[in-house]
Amino acid sequence: MIDISNVSKSFSSGTKAVEKLNLTIQDGMIFGFLGPNGAGKSTTIKMLTGVLPIDEGTITINGFNIADHPIEAKKSFGYVPDSPDLFLRLKGIEYLNFIGDVYEVPLEARKEKIEYLTKEFGIYEALNDTIQTYSHGMRQKIIVSGVLLHDPDVWILDEPLTGLDPKSSYTLKEMMREHARKGKTVFFSTHVLEVVEQLCDQVAIINKGKLEFNGNMQEMREQFESDGSLEQIFLELTKHE
């Protein structure tokens, strides 16, 4: 479970990136977080994961306050950032073993999980190559594999489908569904609105740092008196951007 309570963030320029944001994401839910560029999505995710400090308000993940108990909170989630260009000098297998060490994944279980995940994403044969030789899509796959390696309760995914081929995209979406079916939480941002309609139990739209909508697709259509697609409603909500 994720609870974001009255969270605000400003930058030195005076720009208020996020203003009094309130969201609760229950266990067993796939939650889609949407907004145009510069709306505050990435800032929110960086506060959620402890990358950026919170100016006001609180964020708790599985009952742990990210500011007061960062280690406990971070052990309970896996995070895919919006750029996969990380640890480029490591080989794929070195990176995954590093993640396994950080999260204390037992060696035998780790070996099985690495083989399963990397075969599912089609990068098993490239594990002994350095990540800097990988394509963008392969880098995305190795980062996702690392996130899933320790089987965290909460997945926080920032544009996770970017660069993935159709098969890998389908595989990840099925993994997201299975994770939620187990009573766990998936929080993800994306610009692919059709995926949100297919996958999400709940959707939030942020614009200019403020929450414009939070609910399911039926509630969205009722609130905006529209039978249109999420794309049409989203464009209407953010048309003044």
From TrEMBL:
Signal peptide coordinates: none
Domain of life: Bacteria
Family matches, as Gene3D superfamilies: P-loop containing nucleotide triphosphate hydrolases (3.40.50.300)
Domain ABC transporter span(s) in chain numbering: 2-233
PROSITE patterns registered for this protein in UniProt: ABC_TRANSPORTER_1, ABC_TRANSPORTER_2
One Pfam entry name: ABC_tran
Keyword annotations: ATP-binding, Nucleotide-binding, Transport
CDD domains: ABC_DR_subfamily_A
Xref: SUPFAM superfamilies: P-loop containing nucleoside triphosphate hydrolases
Annotated protein name in UniProt: ABC transporter ATP-binding protein
